[in-house]
Amino acid sequence: MWTILETNSDKTAHLPQFDEPLVLGAPPPAQRSWLAAVAYIFLIIVLFAGLVAQLVIFNKDTLLRDTRVRDLLAGLCTRVACALPVVRDAEQLRSTFVEVSPHPDYESMLLVRFGIFNDALFAQPHPSVDLSFSNTRKQAVAGRRFYPGHYLDASLLSRITIPAGSEILGTLEILDPGPEALNYTIEFVYERN
């Protein structure tokens, strides 16, 4: 059996009284000022520019080798008075021929003629040339690094770069390294500045 303890007919008497009606659900979004929106847009632009700058800095060698990008940057640099770094890739240079023969005018000297072909899609500066001689056991007998002023004719030296897809000829007059020097190798290198 049940017993009724309270007979009050108002079932909401124990609830607190509010001045405003109770709204269930999500509160309405707060009104943001247009200044905050501009600040967020500015922040996004700065972050995007930072990302682009990082991509350019870490991929600058690849970007500078692309002729389209390089031409665009060269046009920009003419307006802003800046200079693009020289692009070099010794692996894109190859020797078309190497001839080592006794010098026709001097005894105990050799005349070395060689061709350098630029396989790259961009012009490159004249490389240094490492010429080395070895014996039959592949032991080094003699070697030296030659710079463009050593192997280029004065008319070729005035050209600052080797154009893409072209060849230049070099000539060296060196002392004969002796009868042990039967093999020779030639290598093109760029020294880092």
Q: What is the gist of this entry?
A:
By secondary structure, the protein is an alpha+beta fold. It has 5 helices and 8 strands.
Report on this structure:
A hairpin with a 5-residue loop joins β4 and β5. The protein has two domains: 35-80; 90-189, abc- transporter (atp binding component) like domain (Coagulation Factor XIII, Chain A, domain 1), CATH 2.70.50.60. The protein has five helices and eight strands. The protein has 193 residues and is an alpha+beta fold. The protein has helices at residues 34-58, 60-65, 67-80, 148-151, 154-157, and strands at residues 93-102, 109-118, 124-125, 128-134, 140-146, 161-162, 167-175, 183-189. The radius of gyration is 38 Å and the shape is elongated. Helices cover 27% and strands 28% of the residues. The chain has a three-stranded antiparallel sheet, with no helix packed on it. A three-stranded antiparallel sheet has the order 5-4-8.
List the helices and strands and how they pair.
Blueprint: H1 34-58, H2 60-65, H3 67-80, E1 93-102, E2 109-118, E3 124-125, E4 128-134, E5 140-146, H4 148-151, H5 154-157, E6 161-162, E7 167-175, E8 183-189
Antiparallel strand pairs: 1-2, 2-7, 3-6, 4-5, 4-8
